[in-house]
Amino acid sequence: GANVATVPQGKTLKDYQEVYNDIAAKIEENLDYDGGAGFYGQLVRLAWHSSGTYDKNTKTGGSYYGTMIFYPEASDGANNGLANGRDFLYEFAVKYPWISRGDLWTLGGVVAVQESGGPKIPWRPGRVDSYEKKDIPENGNLPDASQDGKYVRNYFKRLGFGDREIVALLGAHCLGKCHPENSGYDGPWGPSFNMFTNDFFVRLLGSWHVRQWDGEKQYEDDETNSFMMLPTDIALKEESYFLKYVKLYAADQDLFFADFSKAFATLLELGIEYPRGTKPFLFKTVEEQE
Ligand code: CCH
Fold first, then answer.
1. Does a structural domain hold residue 5?
2. 164 and 136, same structural domain?
3. Are residues 72 and 171 in the same domain?
4. Exposure check for the chain: N or C terminus, fewer CB within 10 A?
5. CB 105 within 8 A of CB 50
6. How high is the pLDDT of residue 287?
7. ipTM score assigned to the predicted complex
8. Do 272 and 249 sit in the same domain of this protein?
């Protein structure tokens, strides 16, 4: 059965912009969260992990059914820590009972990208809550950070993405941090971890060495020893089919923004069918409304 987008009766851009504004206001009230990272990284990761279970071969997973609150998906090690983002958004599920979990979680990611200075993300509503076991994806559909470039390429192929889109998407690691208690990895990718920029690519092109510590194998920057890269991030430098895009995006933030916007919008809609002619919403940032 196709997962056809179904917008709640009578709801328009204005209603979703209201939810957007509420989420943005709460982010603004919690800028100190996670050592100054705020909720930007957390919310982008929640949107991505709720979508990244998609498998184009079996047409399962994706953000449509909003299943991450259920076993086994909630217990997938890859989702460790994301209860923070779901709890953060929960009050809006109560205030706006018409919005589905999938819409709320993906909208949260859009707010986080736009409010941290990133590109506009075209977004369409219409995900529908499911409470059925058959709609919950199995665990193991999210990527393993200890792997190499071939793995990354193959992983994202399952979602329908090519090399250029993969590199663009990984640029989201400009935001937020790794947390040993969640993933075994530690630290932010750079100093501006509450701002959406092309800094991930600029830093990746710098020099990195393997960090000497008890945790998972990760890299730290030669210059300050205070920022990190995952093995899968370093893989973008090791493979020529990724490296050319890393260089493009490091040199041209506008190009990165344009490509990220397209790829992230596609990611959030994997597995969803939209009635022909369904136009995406473009939300105004809080600043644009002042
Ligand atoms: Fe990621 N990411 N990610 N990631 N991710 C982690 C954190 C964030 C991988 C591994 C990890 C994407 C792709 C990949 C974010 C966005 C995206 C962490 C640390 C690991 C591990 C989690 C923790 O400890 O809390 C791997 C592997 C891949 C693919 O190869 C994509 C795609 C996106 C979005 C477009 C963001 C943002 C974070 C920060 C989360 C936070 O809590 O601050």
1. no
2. no
3. no
4. N
5. yes
6. 98
7. 0.99
8. no
How many angstroms is it from 232 CA to the middle of ligand 1? 10
Both 156 and 106 in one domain: the answer is no
Closest ligand 1 atom to the C-alpha of 185? 24
The residue to which tokens 């893989």 are assigned: 235
Q: What's the confidence (pLDDT) of residue 1?
A: 56
In angstroms, the CA 47 to CA 112 distance is 10
User: Is 49 labeled as catalytic in the residue annotation?
Assistant: yes
Atom of ligand 1 nearest to the CA of 175: 37
Q: Is residue 177 one of the residues assigned to a domain?
A: yes
Closest CA to 198 of 152, 156, 247, 233: 247
- Give me 225's structure tokens: 């020893």
Catalytic residue from among 49, 105, 173, 208: 49
208 is catalytic: no
Statement to judge: residues 180 and 223 lie in one domain: yes
To test the ligand 1 pocket, which listed residue (39, 48, 189) has its Cβ within 8 A of the most ligand atoms?
A: 48
Rounded alpha-carbon distances, angstroms, from residue 271 to 63, 64, 121, 202, 276: 8, 7, 18, 33, 15
Give the domain range for residue 248: 149-254
Residues 157 and 70 in one domain: no
Point out the catalytic residue in the list 48, 105, 189, 208.
Answer: 189
Considering its fold, how many domains does the chain have in total?
A: 2
* Nearest ligand 1 atom to alpha carbon 181: 24
**Residue nearest atom 27 of ligand 1, based on CA coordinates:** 145
Task: Looking at the CA of residue 37, tell me the nearest atom of ligand 1.
Answer: 43
Could you give the CA distance from residue 137 to residue 166 in angstroms, rounded to a whole number? 22
Residue numbers of the chain with a pLDDT score lower than 70: 1
pLDDT of res. 207 = 98
- Give the pLDDT confidence score for residue 2 in this predicted structure: 79
Pocket of ligand 1 (CB under 6 A): 37, 41-42, 44-45, 48, 81, 143, 145, 152, 169-170, 172-173, 175-179, 182-183, 185, 230, 232, 264
Say yes or no: 271 and 136 in one domain. yes
- 30 and 96 inside one domain: yes
Structural domain contains residue 131: yes
Which residue from 69, 147, 103, 56 is spatially nearest to 268, judged by alpha carbons?
103
